[in-house]
Amino acid sequence: MTTRILIIEDETTIAQLERDYFELNGFQVDLCHTGTEGLQLALHDDYSLIIVDLQLPGMDGFELCSRIRQAKEVPILIVSAKKEEIDKIRAFNLGADDYITKPFSPSELVARAKAHLTRYERLTSHKEPAAKSEIHIRGLVIDKASRRVFVRNEEVIFTTREFNLLEFLTTHPNRVFSKNELFERIWGMDSSGDIATVTVHIRKLREKIEVDPSNPQYIETVWGAGYRFTV
Fold this sequence. Notes:
Layout: E1 4-8, H1 12-24, E2 28-32, H2 35-44, E3 49-52, H3 61-71, E4 76-80, H4 85-93, E5 98-101, H5 106-125, E6 134-137, E7 140-143, E8 148-151, E9 154-156, H6 160-170, E10 176-177, H7 179-187, H8 196-209, E11 219-222, E12 226-229
Parallel strand pairs: 1-2, 1-3, 3-4, 4-5
Antiparallel strand pairs: 6-7, 7-8, 8-9, 10-12, 11-12
Helix pairs in contact: 1-5, 2-3, 4-8, 6-7, 6-8, 7-8
């Protein structure tokens, strides 16, 4: 079955270039040029992946990314001329899975899209044996089979990526992982990608599981080395 993706890009030349490369790789592509139209398509149609420019008429890419992420768990790739670190961090914080700056290699864009599609497919189809499906750590319960998390007896909602990161850390307790290692393990790409998303996701995990995120008791920062989940 053909994989269907949505490209939201107001620069016609770039949009057509992206579409041509994805179609050459066997994808079915829908194209639109405004944030407002892009949101309508993203929410009402079924796409396997969405590519978003940040500077869009009608609704900017930041708001668009946030609105899509609130409603759907689908890979979102940002392609933008904005190169500032703060823009990348903001995009990741709003739910983007990757950030590619213009000018870009169309072949690399397709390769990254395929990597995200493969990882999402693995995450959503992953099942664990019932006998080993739960992790219990000091008031934290992770049900791997149902992908649910309970913090001090209350269920807390996690995105697919957040859950995968938390599950990985808790199944490798007391071991220090660098940002690059976590990026490779969870995002499935090498360190040539943007690892700022790791910092964003660690912060989100702390906000959801720690009593005091500024003084974490679960996920500790090991300065100069990385992060460790302490049991």
